[in-house]
Design a protein that fits this description.
By secondary structure, this protein is α+β, with helices and mostly antiparallel strands. It has two domains: 150 residues, 2-Layer Sandwich (D-amino Acid Aminotransferase, Chain A, domain 1), CATH 3.30.470; 69 residues, Dna Ligase, domain 1 (2-Layer Sandwich), CATH 3.30.1490. Helices cover 37% and strands 24% of the residues. The protein contains nine helices and eleven strands. Strand 6 and strand 7 form a beta hairpin. 32% of the residues are buried. The model has no long low-confidence stretch (mean pLDDT 91). It comes from Kribbella orskensis.
Length: 282
């Protein structure tokens, strides 16, 4: 009938292609699930943060830690309290406000992976240790701008975020977090709209999923809180088209909830979005 036939040089590649086709077929026929209603969000507040930022930087850029935290709170995502400070006196004053024990992190511009440059100290018990940590980080990084943050609740470190692809639109991601993000490459991706089934599959298919369920006597994490964060990130992706990239790492999954510790957020002027419901590539 004139149709083209696929030809593969080896049987292994043919079987692999058949496997992809079967998984795609199963995805097409499975129940889609529902997109949950998101409550406790501040659309106007989120829009105001983006509008003021792009008024100052029309080409876009990375939000500072303070405004990134504010945008997370507009989406109803819990963030571990933090205070920006520059200089030793300001850092010590921030330590008194936050309370001990605490975490000290560099806020030097351009530093993406803080631990790689010696820019993080955790579990600081008092002002004397805070001063020592400040001096060590200043020497290591060469910058006096810091973030003083409360200690997060113990839990499993995850990563969650999104990237806006020119073809697929917003694509959400979650996976193993902290220093394991790049080491294990344990990540799952989904496009919008994000249904309850999508979010559940993302989390439960991770290699680190047994840790969330409570491993070797550990208390299980609040999975529903983790799923809620993913849906709130999806809400941000739909409501704030200027978000080009969002990275929450780590997102602590604790028995008492899910808490964002470090947030990186890149804004750009909004562009036309592709059809999220498309079932074929353009």
């Amino acid at each position: 009938d004139g149709s083209a036939l696929p030809v593969f040089p080896f049987p292994e590649t043919a079987v692999r292609a058949l496997g992809h086709a079967m998984r795609y077929s199963e995805w097409r026929t499975r129940p889609q699930g529902i997109v949950p209603e998101i409550s406790g969000v501040d659309f106007d507040g989120a829009r105001a943060i983006v509008r003021h930022f792009l008024a100052r930087q029309s080409d876009g850029g990375w939000l500072d830690a303070k405004h990134a935290e504010q945008l997370m709170r507009c989406a109803g995502i819990a963030v571990v309290p933090a205070v920006a400070a520059a200089g030793l006196e300001a850092v010590l004053a921030a330590g008194e406000r936050v309370g001990y024990p605490l975490v000290l992190k560099t806020a030097a511009p351009g530093v993406v992976h803080k631990t790689d440059v010696g820019g993080v100290r955790i579990g600081i018990p008092d002002a004397k240790e805070l001063e020592q940590a400040y001096r060590e980080i200043t020497v290591a990084v060469g910058d006096t701008h810091m973030i003083v943050q409360a200690m997060a609740a113990p839990g499993v470190e995850l990563v969650a975020g999104l990237v806006r692809d020119h073809l697929f639109g917003p694509v959400l991601m979650t996976g193993s977090g902290g220093v394991l993000t790049d080491l294990l490459a344990d990540r799952r991706w989904r496009g919008l709209p994000l249904t309850d089934l999508d979010a559940g599959e993302m989390v439960r298919s991770l290699r680190c999923a047994p840790l969330l369920a409570g491993y070797r006597g550990a208390a299980p994490a609040d999975e529903s809180a983790v799923l809620d964060v993913l849906h709130r990130i999806a809400w941000l992706a739909e409501s704030v088209a200027e978000i080009a990239e969002l990275d929450i790492n780590p997102l602590i999954a604790a028995p008492t909830g899910a808490f964002a510790v470090d947030v990186k957020l890149h804004l750009t002027p909004a562009t036309a979005e592709p059809d999220w419901y498309s079932r074929h590539l353009r």
